[in-house]
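WARN retry 2 of 3 for item q-0093 after timeout on previous attempt; input resubmitted unchanged.
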Amino acid sequence: MENTIKSSALRYGLYLGVFLILVTVLAYVINLGLMTKWWFGIILFLVIIAFGIVSTAKSKSILSGFINFKQAFSSYFITIAIGVLLSTVFSILLFNVIDTEASEILKEKIIESSTQMMESFGAPQSEIDKAIAKMEEQNQFSIISQIKSIAWQLLVFAVIGLIVALGMKKSDPNAA
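OK item q-0093 returned
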């Protein structure tokens, strides 16, 4: 992969990471409860994908409108990986070093919203109690939990990236 494509993907990854960190800081300052809202997660998910698509499109334009599958996927994935890693490192610092109380508050809010959701779906109280007990045992802001989360996120984004790369690839008809 050419250096210009790599540097473009790295730049978009940094932009994504800074954006995600700013969103985290704003949610932290304005209302921690925002981080528990389903729509908040979906919006961030879509923004991350959009950054990957824009990065791939930029790489394609750098290559005069022609990009192979590997270049398209690499551009997408480098952007996503850098952004998600930067955001996760910041979250680890925020919730494990800077303000450990915030992680406990957020954990309580997650338990509350999960309980409400389970109740609205008509889950039996015994199942709700089991789920709450399991959530109370876990520290989803620990470094190990964050690493597991990154792995799953990158796997999901990689699958999406394969689809994006497939849609964006375009061969040069004049190339031999």
